């Protein structure tokens, strides 16, 4: 057993062409030496920041931990807030991020080794 305290996990800049609209940071909650089957990260979006439309090779679960955000697919868009849980199926085109007026954080859970493919320029 290992207890992880998110406030003790350093934030790293998530500089990537996948993100747009402002600063995004990531906190890795599990490391390869833990030998688990998951990738678990806290992702922190400044107001207006989001990722571009993308897909994952595994299902993804988002646990909203702070602020107000948006989850969108090709056909739907919904505002999500603290306490909401979102399940995105493998291969489903989607994006998520902060609303223009609120920072936003979520814990993202995917299978270890899941690949992300950006499908929006």
**Total strand count, please?**
12
Principal-axis shape equals: globular
Identify the CATH class: Mainly Beta
Using the CA coordinates, give the radius of gyration. 14 Å
Q: How would you name the CATH homologous superfamily?
A: Jelly Rolls
Tally of alpha and pi helices: 0
Looking at the overall shape, the CATH architecture is: Sandwich
Q: Which structural class best describes the helix and strand composition?
A: mainly beta
What is the domain tally?
1
Mean pLDDT: 94
Summarize the structure.
The chain is mainly beta and about 120 residues long. It is built from no helices and twelve strands.
Overview of the structural elements:
The chain is an all-beta fold and 121 residues long. The protein has one domain (20-118): Jelly Rolls. Helix content is 0%, strand content 50%. The protein contains no helices and twelve strands. It has strands at 12-13, 19-20, 24-28, 38-45, 50-51, 54-56, 60-73, 77-81, 85-88, 94-98, 104-111, 116-118. The strands form three sheets. Strands 1, 3, 4, 7, 8, 9, 10 and 11 form an eight-stranded antiparallel β-sheet that branches. It starts with 11 loop residues before the first strand and ends with a strand.
